[in-house]
Amino acid sequence: VQLQESGGGLVQPGGSLRLSCAVSGYAYSRYCMGWFRQAPGKERKRVAIIGSDGSTWYEDSVEGRFSISQDNAKNTLYLQMNSLKSEDTAMYYCAADPYGCYSSSAFWRYWGQGTQVTVSS
User: Fold this and answer.
1) Which of 6, 8, 71, 102 has the fewest Cβ atoms within 10 Å of its own Cβ atom?
2) Contact indicator for 94, 33 with CB cutoff of 8 Å
3) pLDDT, tens only, 53-104
4) In a 10 Å sphere around its CB, with 0-12 CB exposed, 13-18 middle and 19+ buried, how is residue 105 labelled?
């Protein structure tokens, strides 16, 4: 199982980015998929989740600004981020798990290497 993120970068406050996570090596559509982020000196936290049934969950601070989606034909997970704020600056990670959409990052089985998002003027 391999996850590879892309799409991070430097963006001004109020701008947008779309992160992608290319998935290989398993029945992608049966897994819980998620995006996490980790700022320097802070713990890794969930940002957005999409279950195998298509249900979604968002962390309060990104609700209405971020959107998680997946393209099963392309085996790719996305995170559309709009109205970005400086506090969104972090390393963003794609994660997958065959057994559940856990709240704690400690329980997720598969991880990408991350892509940096910096929101600054």
Assistant:
1) 71
2) yes
3) 999 999 999 999 999 999 988 999 999 999 999 999 999 999 999 998 998 9
4) middle
